[in-house]
Amino acid sequence: MAKKNVGSSFDEFLEEEGLLEEATAAAVKRVIAFQLAEKMSEHSLSKSEMARRMATSRSALDRLLDPENVSVTLQTLQSAVQALGGRLNVEIDFDDKANAA
Predict the structure, then answer these.
(1) Would you say residue 69 lies in a domain?
(2) Quick one: pLDDT at residue 95?
(3) Which of 12, 42, 77, 100 is the most exposed place for a label (fewest CB within 10 A)?
């Protein structure tokens, strides 16, 4: 006999607690930091060289690569992606259900 899930989803729980946006931002930042660090490793780039290519400081790069630091500007992210030969794409998705409130 299959068990049926009872209750709300984890996203619904986070939303009810007012934590969904914060949790989503933290998760996205962790993914970004991981992807940038992986690409730097693939290119054998040190943090100093990466910062030089981005025309920024090493401490600014450290903040970008810190998965716990959710503050990042699009300009800094664009500089990092461009320094690694990539292209930044930003997507905004408006959920009609969220706007109904």
Answers:
(1) yes
(2) 77
(3) 100
CATH assignment of the domain containing 20: 1.10.260.40
Expressed as residue numbers, the domain containing 90 is 11-99
Does residue 6 fall inside a structural domain? no
User: Is 90 exceeded by the pLDDT of residue 64?
Assistant: yes
Q: Rounded to an integer, what distance in angstroms lies between the CA atom of residue 61 and that of residue 50?
A: 8
pLDDT digits (tens, 9 = 90+) for 13-57: 777 777 788 888 889 999 999 999 999 999 999 999 999 999 999
How distant, in Å, are the alpha carbons of 15, 51, 55, 73, 100 from that of 45? 39, 10, 14, 22, 47
The structure's pTM equals: 0.76
Tell whether 35 is covered by a domain: yes
Token look-up 């931002």 returns 25
Answer yes or no: is 1 within a domain.
Answer: no
So what's the pLDDT on residue 74? Answer: 92
